[in-house]
Automatic annotation (TrEMBL):
Domain of life: Bacteria
Record-linked InterPro entries: Cro/C1-type_HTH, Lambda_DNA-bd_dom_sf
Classification of source organism: Bacteria, Pseudomonadati, Pseudomonadota, Alphaproteobacteria, Hyphomicrobiales
Organism of provenance: Methylorubrum suomiense
Disordered as annotated region, ranges: 1-32
Protein name: Transcriptional regulator
Amino acid sequence: MLDWSRGELGQRAGLSERTVTDFERGAREPHENNRRALREAFEAAGLEFIAQNGGGAGIRFRNRADGTREEH
């Protein structure tokens, strides 16, 4: 969705690229502070997390208050 590299995601979340890679491949389980940092990085980029609502949990771009869509 955002077309970020692992390095860019790590930088935005304050994590190393190696840490992001380890999370992706399941070599390490992220601690709560890592999950929070990743979520905050995604939310700062305009994404919002959607709770389980019968159709499954998900993520989407948040609309701006003026009705236009944020582009990233």
